[in-house]
Amino acid sequence: MKLSYDQLDLKLDQKKNSDKHKYINNFNDVDLIKNFYFSYTLDITHTLQHYMTRPPNHWISPIIHGFVDQSKISISGRNIFVTLIARRSRHFVDARFLKRGVNDQGYVANDVETEQIVSEMSITSFHRSGLYDNPHYTSYVQHRGSIPLFWSQDVTNMAPKPPISIDFLDPFYAAAALHYDNMFKRYGAPIIVLNLIKLGKGDDDVMELMEGFAEEKLDIPKKYAMMQAVGSSQGGAPKSRYQAYEGWLKTEKLVVNSNHYHNSSDKKDTQRRFKIKE
């Protein structure tokens, strides 16, 4: 039996409506009360630098899944607000131990962008007469995520620390390259990679993961200086005063090298001082 064009269109419409209702029901099942945030005056899905260096867009109010908090500090009689925004990626998501490593598109598990915004609240608008015209805001962005290798942990194991399994050895680190390429596009260079792996006695599986991570970074030509690998002592032993001071110096160097964002009243000055990437 042959179907007319009208009958085919009707069947396609019915399928579209069925899919539409399925997606609407899936969305309605999401609890939007916990850990979801939006703002009518600011697109909080992007960093402050991205928002303030582009014309305002009021078409939609985007929503994020993550964390938002704010504290007020008084400095010499001036009220300063410190705002913390954590944005969880929508790619390659699941419960912590169910998703580890990277997928073949370069997206890592447990991917969170954290931004600290310091603002003087003597004014109420982000955008004034034009772009780059509001010097009352500064921002510092950090990004965390799972090690961009193909690895996992056995969640059926009842141990407090499930063993790590290297699922696939990629000799060319193609997925890791995609991951860092995306980071360069979003944040510019340099990308400073801080190793937060905790290493204890008998952690041979963790050591294997660390070696793979280090090998992947050593493959980058040093002359480009686009990435900097930094180790971090994450053992269980308490730190000495010298180790704490050494850690403070290392942190200061990282902040200076990566820079923070401050919106100047002059576009060229903002770009020169803080390496804005359009």
TrEMBL record:
Domain SAC: start-end pairs: 27-198
PROSITE patterns in the record: SAC
Keyword Membrane attributed: yes
Compartments, record wording: Endomembrane system
Record Pfam families: Syja_N (PF02383)
Composition-biased stretches (Basic and acidic residues): 263-278
Gene Ontology terms: cellular component: endomembrane system
Listed InterPro entries: Fig4-like, SAC_dom
UniProt-recorded Gene Ontology molecular function terms: phosphatidylinositol-3,5-bisphosphate 5-phosphatase activity
Major subcellular site: membrane
Alphabetic keyword roster: Hydrolase, Membrane
Region (Disordered): 259-278
Membrane listed as a keyword: yes
Entry's Gene Ontology BP terms: phosphatidylinositol dephosphorylation
Record-linked PANTHER family: POLYPHOSPHOINOSITIDE PHOSPHATASE (PTHR45738)
Protein name: SAC domain-containing protein
